[in-house]
Amino acid sequence: MSVDPPLIIAGRNAVREALERTPESLEKVCLQRDARGLNQIRSLATRAGIPVQMLPKDGLRRLADGMTHQGAVAFQAAFSYADYSVMLKDIAADLDTVRAQRPRLLLLDGIQDPRNFGAIVRSAVAFGVQGLIVCAHHMAPANAAMVKASSGTALRMPIARVGRLADVIPELKERGYFVYGTAAHGAHSIWEMDWNCPVALVIGSEGRGLFPDTERICDRLVSIPMDGDVESLNASVATGVLLALAFQPGYRG
Q1: Mean pLDDT computed over every residue of the chain
Q2: What do you get for the CA distance between the two ends of the chain, in Å?
Q3: Which of 41, 90, 146, 172 has the smallest CB count inside 10 Å?
Q4: CB 218 within 8 A of CB 179
């Protein structure tokens, strides 16, 4: 399991999510001394045996390193990435299971803004994605800004990090997944695609899109039809649109 540098978690929702999902990873919780509505967070930390420190507003602001903290900050040793092979087996162990259960995977090919990364994770959780795979290079870190933007959902979504997506996509195909890349020039509209199957959806970076070696081995390149004088959408917005349309239960059939 690979790790990023130590993590600051700021904001009530994010801290509460961490306490409920991964309390064993937290080293300390700091709360604003005169703030209201923090009793649940304090109780969760106390029950988990995590030290709680009460601080004045200015002290908490310094710890939050510029992030909006809403009176709650937690410290985690590091963000832990899931083991890629273990994650795939946990989602669907073999080809027959993949075909029967039709899992949903999301692959990020170089998202560079941590806030976009976090917003994408939040959408992925909301629309039932079961695992997320990111490339190791040209990719935003799983840092405090990412966790904050995900509203803490990054702490419950299995996220695996690999060297290059192009190296793992062939294996995903062998496991039974259809790999759909997203591109403004994609030949297939989202409305034309068969989403009633095991799907690994690949999202490219905010400006460049997919890496050429990733794009070449996708089964299909998918685009979002748009009206008006707009060439493309922000990566996190486009991902939310795609997941909402393609992965909602009624649309999948």
Answers
A1: 88
A2: 36
A3: 90
A4: yes
Q: Is 132 left (phi over 0), alpha (psi -120 to 50) or beta?
A: beta
Task: With a cut of 60, say whether residue 250 has pLDDT above it.
Answer: no
Q: For the chain, which residues make up each domain, given as ranges?
A: 7-76, 84-252
Cβ(45)–Cβ(29) under 8 Å? yes
CATH number attached to the domain at 7-76: 3.30.1330.30
Query: Distance (Å, rounded) from C-alpha 241 to C-alpha 232?
Result: 12
- Name the band, by pLDDT with cuts 50, 70 and 90, for residue 24: confident
Burial (CB count <10 Å: 0-12, 13-18, 19+), residue 96: exposed
Q: CB-based burial of residue 88 (10 Å sphere; 0-12 exposed, 13-18 middle, 19+ buried)?
A: buried
Q: What is the pLDDT of residues 172-197, one digit of tens each?
A: 999 999 999 988 777 788 888 888 99
Evaluate if pTM is beyond 0.70.
yes
Burial environment of residue 41 by CB neighbours within 10 A (0 to 12, 13 to 18, 19 or more): buried
Q: How far apart are CA 231 and CA 43, in angstroms?
A: 49
pLDDT tens-digit readout, 90-135: 999 999 999 999 999 999 998 999 999 999 999 999 999 999 999 9
The CATH number of the structural domain formed by 84-252 is 3.40.1280.10
The length of the chain in residues reads 253
pLDDT of residue 249: 56
Q: Quick one: the chain helix, strand, coil %, rounded to 5?
A: 40, 25, 40
Residue position matching structure tokens 């306490």: 19
What is the rounded CA–CA span in Å between residue 10 and residue 149?
A: 10
